[in-house]
Amino acid sequence: xxxxxxxxxxxxxxxxxxxxxxxxxxxxxxxxxxxxxxxxxxxxxxxxxxxxxxxxxxxxxxxxxxxxxxxxxxxxxxxxxxxxxxxxxxxxxxxxxxxxxxxxxxxxxxxxxxxxxxxxxxxxxxxxxxxxxxxxxxxxxxxxxxxxxxxxxxxxxxxxxxxxxxxxxxxxxxxxxxxxxxxxxxxxxxxxxxxxxxxxxxxxxxxxxxxxxxxxxxxxxxxxxxxxxxxxxxxxxxxxxxxxxxxxxxxxxxxxxxxxxxxxxxxxxxxxxxxxxxxxxxxxxxxxxxx
Length: 291
Known about the structure:
The chain is an all-beta fold.
């Protein structure tokens, strides 16, 4: 069972991915500049967890399915699961997680989750394939959760960094309750037109959460300096998160969301859940282009 990170590279970009959680741990350019979090444990030691089979938290960390109650940790179990290495080359790698006795105790479905990573020139591509290998419809959610350096290594202070969305984003955001659920009242957007000016105080009450985002791409960085172009064509929800004082910014395309406060319905009724028919799959893509 491989445990060391797998390195893939192009002439311009190098990425390290760990089998534990199929987690991207490092992304550097040819000059050795690091674009991922410094993973300071004083704030958060994660790098880029994979969120499956839920995104966010379920009420009391328990959910109901066909009259049976199951425990489920925040963001699901994939991020703490060992993925098998199924394909590896100089510039690409594929990891796979399948159901087991342990996963079925929390999520009674047969599944395969493949995480494919590839680098080409200055672009890292991440492709998640969620496949129903069982005989009954499978409810699920999926999310990316990469933590990028803030500030980026191109220079500029944290406060000079901004996110520029593909489109104007005037809609309200979801508010996160103290117990990590979706609050009843929405939050006014901090976006002006298509621009989000970044500052620590935005995250005093947890993440910024868009339940329905118009954009499918954004640019992160300092105006007039290189930055990151990020695309997520298959997801309409987005979380942006950090802990005030830290030096990372998580930009998280989601197909799923936490439970609303007080939710007690079946998993199939949970907001953000999609259904995959037996033998079918859903694919979610995210690309990061450097500079």
